[in-house]
């Protein structure tokens, strides 16, 4: 609650709206006791006195009535009418919505049909029809405006009620033999009141506007009584000669409605958890780079080399070290597996390469990624974009989400080609079909005309692979491309990738959480834990004799690989949150071999030949293994 | 596609019936004898008797409804006594003026609203975003009739750039440019609120879409940012923007009543207000049914547009 008010106050516009609104409401409440002139006493000798004249701060209108007094009385009336309309609409709308939602079935069906019918009207038109039937007048205008807003409330409240009506506590009350009325009043109503209040806050501005509108048309308040709308309506004939009589009530309506809207927006923003967490911010075209030091020299050869890469998520005050000094490299024709649990930073590592980490909150704070001789981290966006998809391509997990749902797959392939090559559409389409054939999609010509949702998961993933091949890249980064697929399809996709790499000399970085997949495809493997590499080496060597306790446990999770024995041993405990890492080994809380020394200081990645491990008491002594 | 359109048209029939029922029931709330109410000052005994005979006003409610509906289906919306001409003729005359006004406003609100929303989202928290957000807030808070009056004051009276009111100049007007100059202010005044609403929604729809995985795919392909925003993201965002456009169409269509009053535009809204004040019941009834029916048909067009955009919708 305190946080809510802090957020609200920090939002200066909302605060300004709140203050303006409070002043207006206060003035309206105090109007009867303020020393004002009579609002309805005419004095034709004193017509159209300009504002700021003596005795008439805001001047007088066409009948010589004091504008200030009329303005405050009119405001009072407009606010009262708008508020009353909101209460009426909320009351009847909520009643209808609760009945429909609580009883469901036929009742619900019939009521909601009626509501839909009402909503089929352009709604000011409906208000006009109601006023036409009841006759012009302020009360009738109020009824009309309230009535046309009832469907809106009914629909909202019904939705919420349906959700509550099947909760356990309601069932329990029913079993206890409480009457429906009792249940609605004691169990349902308290739960929907917040929704009603929020719906009122969003609509009250409208209702004030609409009642003012009807009065403006001469269908609302009748002379001599005047709300803001009818003041404006009466002033219209004198608009050109004496604009102040129009401006005064018009500006007041504007202040009121704007105040309500500002305050309402502020409240909604402050209540929205997504806004608070930054989940609604737009990711930039490329990940932000805030690297203070010079990029380090490449630690190894390769077509793609990452050195001490550091990517973090900055959320408010917190810093999540998702990728913590990761060094990896891959050579042409080689497949490097990067394995870890979700949250280990393996995907972020992959996305950092071409600046695809969503930013905000992602920030690359250090390290280097080198493609051939070009430094990718901090590269100008234009250059980086030229390399994306052309030299370094991605294959993503879950192609249903990663392919555009509204474009044909053929067109998505055509785009991938045309972004980097000046070719005509017909030519590009031909190439697109060829690509689909290369990834062994049957009936490629007709499949190119399909939309992603019309394909199976395996076919979609083949499209994803075809897209990554579109420009014959040097490096493919595959981020869990087979996770969503069943085992047979997975095997097909893996062998496809394997063939492509042999035929084209592609370098592949393969991100996965599954050692079985690594065993099938990868030459080398790097194991990540809590944003760091904990072990690295040739796949077979690591599988035969894992050095890091974590690697050993990961391997044990895969039945066919775990030393021939079929044991499924999940690793107890959870990977640590990367925003508050304790010193020393991150795996320590889950490690069975942990000693005091493990948590006192940083543990280096010890390299021996082609292998490396970050552990004080490794399962396999690498020096021995090397000999 | 034709099948889908047909299906939607058929499903609109019950809605159209519902509309006539609602309008009929509302009008049945008029206190007193209906014939006298309809005739108002023309209520001589002969007239009352004739009207009772024609419209079956002395019969029970249900019978009266079906007589009215039957007449309407034959194109007979009754007769306006105040204007002494058939309701349908008057409505059709006036509706064309409203259609020009509301149609222009609708196009304006769609184009500017979406553009503002996209720019706002693409520059989130930047200067353009803040400026647009504030302008939108101002736009949705200002009563259109007040805005219209202020526009007249500034652009017609003080600057003398545009005509004060009306649809054509009284002398020597009547051609397209003349219509254009007369249309400019009312169409803008009417479009402002709707533009604000569309801009707001487009912004949030775009922000939602820009975080999706397929946007990251487009970037990974090397698509440039402008194309990512205006093609990939906007196309996907349109799926949630189009229904709002449908709602806003209803808003400009009915909100035109204020603007027509302010600018003396000879549309259906002004006709309805005059009719209400003169208690010309049949004209109100017919006008409301006609406009509401047009809106229902327009919404079918919106659904069709949606199905053209989104292949996932079963047609
Ligand atoms: S360093 Fe210590 S705690 Fe960490 S994995 Fe090795 S033995 Fe376990």
Folded structure, characterized:
The complex is a heterodimer of chains A (627) and B (315). Chain A has 627 residues and is an alpha/beta fold. Among the domains of chain A are: 25-34 and 59-276, MetI-like (MetI-like fold), CATH 1.10.3720.10; 405-464, no CATH class. Chain A is built from 23 helices and 13 strands. In chain A, helix 16 (425-438) packs across helix 18. With 315 residues, chain B is mostly helical. A two-stranded antiparallel ribbon of chain B has the order 1-2. In chain B, helix 5 packs antiparallel against helix 10 (225-262) and helix 8 crosses helix 10. The longest helix of chain B is centred in the last third of the chain and has 38 residues, at 225-262. Chain B is globular, with a radius of gyration of 23 Å. The N and C termini of chain B lie close together (6 Å). The model of chain B has no long low-confidence stretch (mean pLDDT 88). Classes of the chains: A alpha/beta (627), B mainly alpha (315). The interface between A and B is large, with 83 and 83 residues. Bound molecules: iron/sulfur cluster. Iron/sulfur cluster is lined by residues 549, 585, 587-588, 591, 593-594, 598, 603, 615-617 of chain A. The site of iron/sulfur cluster has 12 residues of chain A, from loops.
């Amino acid at each position: 609650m305190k946080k809510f008010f802090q957020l609200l106050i920090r939002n200066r516009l909302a605060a300004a709206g709140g203050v303006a609104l409070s002043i207006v409401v206060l003035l309206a409440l105090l109007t009867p006791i303020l020393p004002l002139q009579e609002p309805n006493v005419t004095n034709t000798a004193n017509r159209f006195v300009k504002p700021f004249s003596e005795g008439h701060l805001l001047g007088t209108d066409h009948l010589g009535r004091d504008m200030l007094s009329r303005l405050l009385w009119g405001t009072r009336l407009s606010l009262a009418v708008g508020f009353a309309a909101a209460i009426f609409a909320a009351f009847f709308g909520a009643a209808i919505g609760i009945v429909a939602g609580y009883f469901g079935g036929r009742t619900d069906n019939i009521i909601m049909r009626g509501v839909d019918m009402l909503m089929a009207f352009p709604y000011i038109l409906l208000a006009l029809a109601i006023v036409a039937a009841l006759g012009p007048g302020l009360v009738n205008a109020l009824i009309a405006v309230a009535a046309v807003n009832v469907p809106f409330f009914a629909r909202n409240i019904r939705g919420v009620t349906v959700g509550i009506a099947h909760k356990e506590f309601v069932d329990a009350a029913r079993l206890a033999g409480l009457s429906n009325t009792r249940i609605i009043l004691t169990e349902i109503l308290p739960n929907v009141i917040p929704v009603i209040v929020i719906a009122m806050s969003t609509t009250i501005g409208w209702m004030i506007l609409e009642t003012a509108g009807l009065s403006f048309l001469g269908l609302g308040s009748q002379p001599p009584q005047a709300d803001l709308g009818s003041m404006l309506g009466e002033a219209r004939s004198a608009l050109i000669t004496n604009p102040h009589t129009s401006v005064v009530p018009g500006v007041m309506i504007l202040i009121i409605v704007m105040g309500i809207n500002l305050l309402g927006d502020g409240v909604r923003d402050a209540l929205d958890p997504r806004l608070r967490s930054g989940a609604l911010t737009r990711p930039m075209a490329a990940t932000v780079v805030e690297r203070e030091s010079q990029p380090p020299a490449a630690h190894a050869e390769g077509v793609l080399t990452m050195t001490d890469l550091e990517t973090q998520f900055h959320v408010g005050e917190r810093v999540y070290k998702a990728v913590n000094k990761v060094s990896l490299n891959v050579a042409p024709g080689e497949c490097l597996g990067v394995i870890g649990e979700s949250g280990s930073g393996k995907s972020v590592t992959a996305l950092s390469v071409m600046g695809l980490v969503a930013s905000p909150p992602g920030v690359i704070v250090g390290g280097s990624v080198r493609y051939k001789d070009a430094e990718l981290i901090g590269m100008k966006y234009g250059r980086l974009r030229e390399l994306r998809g052309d030299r370094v391509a991605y294959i993503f997990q879950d192609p249903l989400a990663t392919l555009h749902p509204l474009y044909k797959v053929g067109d998505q392939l055509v785009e991938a080609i045309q972004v980097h090559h000046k070719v005509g559409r017909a030519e590009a389409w031909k190439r697109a079909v060829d690509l689909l054939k290369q990834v062994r999609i049957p009936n490629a010509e007709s499949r190119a005309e399909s939309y992603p949702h019309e394909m199976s998961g395996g076919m979609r993933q083949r499209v994803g692979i075809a897209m990554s091949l579109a420009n014959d890249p040097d490096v493919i980064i595959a981020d869990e491309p087979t996770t969503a697929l069943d085992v047979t399809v997975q095997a097909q996709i893996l062998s496809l990738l394997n063939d492509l790499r042999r035929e084209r000399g592609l370098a592949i970085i393969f991100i996965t959480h599954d050692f079985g997949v690594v065993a099938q495809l990868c030459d080398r493997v790097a194991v990540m834990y809590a944003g760091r590499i904990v072990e690295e080496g040739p796949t077979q060597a690591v599988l035969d004799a894992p050095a890091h306790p974590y690697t050993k446990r990961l391997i044990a999770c895969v039945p066919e690989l775990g030393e021939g024995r079929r044991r499924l041993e999940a690793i107890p405990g959870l990977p640590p949150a990367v925003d508050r890492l304790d010193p020393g080994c991150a795996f320590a809380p889950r490690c069975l071999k942990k000693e005091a020394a493990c948590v006192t200081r940083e543990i280096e990645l010890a390299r021996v030949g082609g292998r490396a491990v970050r552990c004080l008491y490794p399962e396999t002594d690498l020096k021995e293994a090397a000999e | 596609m034709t099948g889908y359109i047909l299906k939607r048209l058929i499903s609109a029939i019950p809605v159209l019936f519902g509309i006539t029922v609602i309008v009929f029931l509302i009008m049945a709330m008029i206190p007193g004898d209906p014939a006298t109410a309809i005739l108002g000052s023309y209520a001589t005994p002969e007239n009352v008797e004739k009207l009772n005979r024609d419209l079956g006003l002395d019969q029970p409610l249900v019978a009266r409804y079906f007589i009215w509906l039957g007449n309407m289906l034959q194109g007979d919306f009754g007769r306006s006594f105040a204007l002494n001409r058939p309701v349908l003729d008057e409505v059709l005359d006036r509706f064309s003026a409203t259609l020009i006004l509301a149609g222009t406003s609708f196009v304006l609100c769609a184009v500017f609203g979406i553009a503002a929303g996209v720019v706002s989202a693409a520059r989130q928290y930047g200067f353009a975003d803040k400026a647009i957000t504030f302008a939108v807030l101002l736009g949705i808070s200002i009563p259109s009739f007040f805005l219209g009056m202020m526009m007249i004051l500034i652009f017609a009276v003080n600057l003398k750039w545009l005509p004060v009111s009306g649809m054509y100049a009284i002398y020597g007007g009547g051609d397209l440019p003349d219509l254009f100059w007369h249309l400019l202010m009312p169409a803008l005044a009417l479009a402002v609120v709707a533009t604000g609403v569309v801009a707001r929604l487009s912004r949030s729809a775009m922000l939602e879409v820009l975080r999706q995985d397929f946007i990251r795919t487009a970037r990974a392909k090397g698509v440039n940012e402008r194309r990512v925003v205006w093609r990939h993201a906007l196309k996907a965002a349109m799926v949630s923007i189009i229904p709002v456009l449908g709602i806003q169409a209803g808003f400009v269509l009915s909100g035109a009543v204020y603007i027509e009053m302010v600018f003396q535009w000879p549309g259906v809204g002004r006709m309805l207000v005059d009719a209400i004040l003169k208690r010309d019941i049949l004209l109100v009834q017919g006008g409301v049914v006609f406009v509401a029916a047009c809106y229902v048909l327009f919404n079918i067009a919106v659904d069709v547009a949606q199905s053209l955009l989104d292949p996932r919708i079963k047609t």
